Amino acid sequence: MAEPGATLDAQFDNAFGQVMAAMQREKVAWPDVLSASLFIERGHGEPQWLLERFRAAAGADLPFVECEPVDGLASIDKHLEIEITARLAKR
Asked: pLDDT tens for residues 39-55?
């Protein structure tokens, strides 16, 4: 998820909120999450900041989390992106 916001903090909050909403819709909990990929646009923040912010918000010890700086995202007003990969529970 990549969402607009007035600040990088607001963008994180909006994107993380969308991740949580998607997890809820799919009935996925943090123990089901296999990995997280975080991206931050160069010149708009540090990867370590995004990594620490994500880990604090998730409140879970995930098996694999990566954070990469990128040279641009799909939209000029979005400077970070959060992607998760999860195992869906049997329905």
From this structure: 999 999 999 999 999 99
